[in-house]
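Batch job 17 of 40 flagged for manual review because the log was empty.
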Amino acid sequence: MATLTVQQATIAGVTPTFVAVAASDVFANNGKTYIEVKNGNAGADTVAIDSLVACNQGTDHDGGGSVPATTGDKIFGPFDPTRFNNANGQVTITHSVTATVTCTVFTL
């Protein structure tokens, strides 16, 4: 598990730095944080973003979804800190595949 670096989006723009993913990673979340996942793998990557408490409708459902194989690219977020942050103010993200899958995290 790695702690992913969060990049600050600015009016002048930011060049995203993509890093290899692990089966499980964490990143700091301020409620305005997004993660972009690129999948170069031959199989789809099922991304799960762990919700720790129920939403305001009473259901504890995770965020995430499937990032298509080969050239898939999806952005997930933002993440409500009251639902997704652990005791360290971090969100946990897991991947079903890791080879040739990269991500970047940014905040507004």
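Reviewer: the log was empty due to a logging misconfiguration, but the result itself is present. Residues 81-84 form the longest helix (4 residues). Unflagging and moving on to job 18.
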